[in-house]
Amino acid sequence: MRFIHTADWQLGMTRYFLNGEAQPRYSAARRDAVAALKELAAGAGAEFVVVAGDVFEHNQLAPREVSQSLEAMRAIGVPVYLLPGNHDPLDASSVYTSPLFVAECPDNVTVLDRSGVHVVRPGVELVAAPWTSKAPCADPVASVLDDLPADGTARIVVGHGGVDIFVPDKDRPSLIRLAALEAAIARGAVHYAALGDKHSRMQVGSTGRIWYSGSPEVTNYDDIETDPGHVLVVDLDEAHPDAPVQVQPHTVGRWRFVTLRRSVDNSRDIADLDLNLDLMPDKDRTVVRIGLTGSLTVTDKAALDACLDKYARLFAALTVWDKQSDIAVTPADGEFDNLGIGGFAAAAVDELVAAARSDGDDADAARSALALLLRLADRGVA
């Protein structure tokens, strides 16, 4: 038996830092990652797809988002099983019970809307642990494991949440206890655990049977999400479910969220940054966050600002990471001697230079004014 394990589609997700027209493209890319499962399922011969929670970003979605998402699921062609997670729990406002979802849900889509066993077909079962609120008071998976027999049925647990070995707060009620899962696997009652919540692909424990698939499209920067953009094709020997499970990742994501850290102390460093940004491919699908440190003259700082402005127009988003940035700007000796101005204007420039070199409250404003003056002078305005 072969199936696809995926999770954390979070359809309808918005990212506040995206440029205006990039957000619709990003939303479409998340749906495209879902629709791409049609070709993967057909090529791999996958019998069904399990989505281990957070199918939607939240329960209050625009009708258009719900309809387009369901159409993407319809296109997959094979049965698709959806588990409600912490973003889209089965509470009173659940998207899964909304009139629109119920009316337009394709025949190949099933919501795992109750805890316990769901029969895929004779000999194959899904053991679901849906979230019914955003704050479960107990491990959502442990309760569905207790009464499972070791009777040769191939069983796949579908769960969502953090596993206790990965978090310092061991007392959090919603944590999935790894020991309980591994015990069910050891006694032959469970043969694979398809988990969601972590957005990076990750094996859990040492059995080779417990996995996070990660999100099929990136949701955060690469220093936070180390391995997103995948779905897992899982081979489970139905005749001998205790035989080793084969798990093969497939890349479906197309976007990148990149974190860069650079030291910039002169014009050469700025040129290197410009070159590195220029060489990055697929700028319209790439988000860049830059942490910048160093000490620059006003002239070089103006050049840096011009560089960043240029690439902010080319990338889906480019932002300076304020918490990881610290650039000291100090006017160099003679930096403003050749502007071709005199009289009161020259005296004003001297005052700005003195203010920019001080530690006073007006230093930042003076540096900004000098940078603007340099830009205007370069354009022949001043």
TrEMBL record:
One of its GO terms (molecular function) is exonuclease activity. Residues 1-162 form the Calcineurin-like phosphoesterase domain. InterPro entries: Calcineurin-like_PHP, DNA_Repair-Maintenance_Comp, Metallo-depent_PP-like, Mre11_N, UCP033093_metalloPase. Keywords: Exonuclease, Hydrolase, Nuclease. It comes from the Bacteria. Transmembrane segments: none annotated. Coiled coil: none annotated. Belongs to the SbcD family. This is Nuclease SbcCD subunit D.
